Amino acid sequence: MKSALVSLGTLLAFAAAAIAQPESAPATAPASRPGVLVRPHMVIHTAPEQKVVVDAEVCTRDRIIEFLAVTKGNREYEAILRTEAKAADLHLAMLTFGLTPGKPATWVWDGDKGHYIPPRGPKVKIEFEWTDPKTNTPRRAEPSDWIINPAKKGTLPVPKEWVFIGSEVLPDGKYRGDEEGVVVAVANDPAAVIDVPFESSKDERRQELVANEKTIPPPGTPVKLIFTVVPGGRTCPDARTLVEIDRNGDAYIHGQQVPLAQLRAWAEKYVQRHEKGACLLRSDARALVCDAERVRDELKIGGVFEFDEQRLLPQGVVLPRTTAQAAQELAEWKKMFANPREEIVDPGRQAAEALAQVQSELERMADQRTLLEHYRKQLQEQLTAYEPIRKAREAQRALEEAQDPATRPAARDGKADETTDETK
Question: If we measure between CA atoms, which residue out of 44, 28, 373, 413 comes closest to residue 227?
Fold first, then answer.
């Protein structure tokens, strides 16, 4: 959880800095002039026009395609362009423009019937610029000029629009788009940064779009891949945000901790900007179920109703929780130490890792004990100070009831007159 938070937080922090002060970007991404950020093989123009120029080159032009662009060395046989730029940097660029990632394609089930929902998100325009190797003249084109449906089968259109869905930061802190090498998808892919806004299957039997060999320059031709933000993207109805819940039940959004009491206000602002905003709730393996429920409830009250929930697998050894479990595991350790050759991994190394985890857990428990002791002490002091106030209030209430017959229980129930009649 920690590595993922750091990675996403760093990405967004850099994006925020880029918007505020583009001329003071870190050394890893120097700005040549105000309004321009430079990343490896990529130039991000933040003003006046919001666009990204990526260095790429043609890798194939004569086959069915699943991708418009991939990172070099990754599935180039299914793409038209390859680039050495990082997918995460393109995601970063979209964040600097104030865009929120949209939603990848998904299936929604209503009973036993499934409905396919295509990718949705802020619209992005894509163009190509290159120099014709034969005539040495500048050329310009759009993806629809390089992609065809030769058999004209089915109803799959040649893409003219594209959407920013944003790949995800994985639990280990790595960016999925970089791990899988996907930059721009033609066949719907949740790992892509940019996708087509319609259903486009990765199933080979249903693939219809082909690279147009007649219009694409030869393999190896350098191409500028240009992404331009379409107006209205900042308030796109469809959006997706990662909400992480650590083992202590604390919620993090964009890598920053958001107290439970502030989640409702955050959600209200989120859906004001993105009417159909969704949240991915990713819980640490050791977080309590009620922690996720509390976070989800606060977000729901704030207006978020679409959720996807993930629970991470536990890292390291699962320590015993009962005396019986401890006895059973100690017996297993004894057996492994007696027959080490039967083990794939040296039991000594496994035991050392387990002991390190035990020590870490003991330290965490000590910190928790210190916290709870302080909490108990402070609460006890407040309760002790409140006791005289409570007793004084009770005495005052009793006195008021004694002075005002109308406040007596018998009078309030209408039984006082009955008692008087019986006495008479």
Answer: 44
Structure pTM?
0.76
Higher pLDDT, 38 or 424: 38
Residue 171 neighbours by CB distance under 10 Å: 17
Altogether, the residues listed in the chain come to a count of 424
Q: Burial level of 239, CB count in 10 A (0-12/13-18/19+)? A: buried
Q: Tell me the C-alpha to C-alpha distance, in Å, between residue 221 and each of 59, 70, 82, 179, 237.
A: 8, 15, 11, 25, 38
Which one-letter DSSP state was computed for residue 295?
H
Structure confidence by residue, pLDDT tens digits, 138-163: 999 999 999 988 776 556 788 899 99
Q: Which amino acid is at 294?
A: R
Please identify which residue in the block is written with the tokens 């890798």: 59
Give the residue extent of every domain in the chain: 2-235, 238-311
Are the C-beta atoms of 71 and 86 separated by less than 8 Å?
yes
Percent of residues in the chain assigned helix, strand, coil, to nearest 5: 40, 25, 35
Q: What's the CATH number of domain 238-311, 1.10.287.770, 3.30.420.270, 3.40.50.720, 3.40.50.2300?
A: 3.30.420.270
